[in-house]
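Z., the sequence and structure:
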Amino acid sequence: MRQENQILGRASMKPGQPVYILNSGSIVGTKEGQGPLGLLFDVVGEDDMFGCKTWEEAESSLQKDAVYLALGKAGLKPEDISLMFAGDLLGQSIATSFGISTYQIPLLGVYGACSTCGESLTLGVMSIAGGFARTTVCVTSSHFASAEKEFRFPLDYGNQRPLSASWTVTGSGAFVLGDEQAAKELERNAETGKNTKPRAKITGLTVGKIVDYGLKDSMNMGACMAPAAASTLEQHFVDFNSRPEDYDKIITGDLGKVGQRVLIDLLRDKNFDISAQHMDCGIEIFDGDSQDTHAGGSGCGCSAVTLSAYILKQLEEGNWKKVLFVPTGALLSKTSYNEGKSVPGIAHALIMESV
């Protein structure tokens, strides 16, 4: 008997039936390929231009290729997809609009800064759970050079970076979500190769709210985003009546080393200790000792490619049974920064379980 969707507490939802990650694709730049997760990504670029003339075109190419990989691995075509949710860091989301237009899939563009992976997945789950779609594609991207050009300084300027700064990941991650029927069809489709079952299932989510502690340092985005991550996690634990130990891992998007310490301290003040379970994508994707990325990785692509290449692999292999995935975003722009505004943050949480 099909169960009804449940609204839990202030900001959470439990789908009546799980929504499945049918498959995914990840493509990264050269620096990411040299990091600890390098062998797990589907594609590593030979150079960060990816055969394009500009950094922005390269980022568009990342999204296009990530969607192509995800659809191919799921054994689906663009016409099989009901909706696409996509976004990036650039002004007016130009990496998205120029990157995936050729697929001609009904598109809802989203912007959550570096939390865009979580936001797009959340909307994809809601659409499927609500009966408005059978399958969705959720994709996001970032590029180190295009982000530096957009938010900080052109690379030719050669500015120095403080130790609190993070390194924007060059990469894109795409995810094909489906309902239970789509998951069963995937399992029956031998043409998809060895991976004939969904990679994971999403069984709950918590939508975050904007949290602003008044911090104005764009070179310390981990500290700016950590309060939002703490707020979402506290709300999640309350809404689901759960504790940190209910999860094998609690995985934030790109807080880095500085933001990780802030997050753990903030939650301890709320009587939640996540120190044993916490992992951060921005810390995992680079080797902080040899790759000189200071606080760690960031950008829309950071949590997306880490989820596709590493986190889902751990769930598939049964090393983890249940994780809480919490991408984080710093909601600033070059306009707001130049006008002296603070850097608000936001984070969204999704429960992911092995199939």
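The chain has two domains: 6-192, 203-353. Residues 335 and 341 are 9 Å apart (CA to CA).

Let me know what you think.
H.
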